[in-house]
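Sample 3 of the quickstart, ligand iron/sulfur cluster:
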Amino acid sequence: MSNTNPLLDVSGLTKHFPIKGGFPIRRTVGAVQAVDGLDFQVAEGESLGLVGESGCGKSTTGRLITRLLEPTGGKITYRGQDITHAGRKGLAPIRSEIQMIFQDPYASLNPRQTVGKIISGPMEINDINPEGGREKRVRELLEIVGLNPEHFNRFPHEFSGGQRQRIGVARALALEPKLIVADEPVSALDVSIQAQVVNLLQKVQRELGIAFVFIAHDLAIVRHFSQRVAVMYLGKIVEIADREDLYGNPRHPYTRALLSAVPEATVDAEPRERIRLAGDVPSPINPPTGCRFRTRCWKATEKCATEAPTLVQVEGNKPGHLTACHYPETADTVPAPRLAKDPEAAA
Ligand SMILES: Nc1ncnc2c1ncn2[C@@H]1O[C@H](COP(=O)(O)OP(=O)(O)OP(=O)(O)O)[C@@H](O)[C@H]1O
Ligand code: SF4
Ligand SMILES: [Mg+2]
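Result:
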């Protein structure tokens, strides 16, 4: 892992959405702590998977990196340039280098535009004229993503969901990006075609050397795609590691719980008991003190309630494998109970 000169360097990244209330004068009465102090890097051409349950802040993170959202705190450095609060002008030179692919291929394509118009849109906006013209480039892109290049005059509704996501990929590739943030790019698709689209993204990543931040709900999808994986819980990264280390030696109880839901990912030879976490994720408006996972953790102690664990290389971790837990799991940790304890009892 080359952390000396990462493509993207994120430190202490925070996004709190203010909650307004009161009458007649509306004022800020609280905040949704959607993302709360993230540190991670993405090397050139690398794929980082970002995994966690609904509401843990994955999309917010993606939108912060692509600067669709303004961070509340922390720092985002892209190719050595601080872009944390860069405005339109500051972002202009790199706008084309960072692209996003969205979850819903239906909502993210304009139904009134032809595929050619959609894919060439970014070239038009950025006034880019490729050799041989934009139409030629559109045909090339359609071919790269596995669509018929002659179909550039068709409209999105003439394509299936999987094909539409391919159009989204072609559009993201139009400006030859260096980094693509893919926010659950296959979760809206039929299971039968998810693998095809993941394969396409993998081809794009490898052959074109594009770095990815691949956002997903579970560890199954990023397993074959991302060389490195970060697990998020309630606005924080609880564990980050190279793929082999994360799947083979998960140290955070939450990572273990998530992994137990992936059938083929066994830590040891014995088939593992599925860990079902009790209760829901607590509200990010009023997250638990100390370790945010403690209300659902079967190992929580008093210390977990008072001291927030920091993301560090705990004993037994390889370099680059960081875990935020006071009592990290080990290979011979007694298998977790089938049902974690009642969240009310720990709160
Ligand atoms: N614009 C907003 N204003 C207020 N709260 C927001 C806003 N956007 C997101 N949130 C809140 O921030 C938290 C994180 O949301 P986010 O969409 O980043 O989660 P996610 O991990 O992408 O979830 P999912 O898996 O459901 O897509 C949630 O509690 C969400 O309700
Ligand atoms: S710090 Fe405590 S509550 Fe948090 S994951 Fe570790 S053992 Fe569980
Ligand atoms: Mg999301």
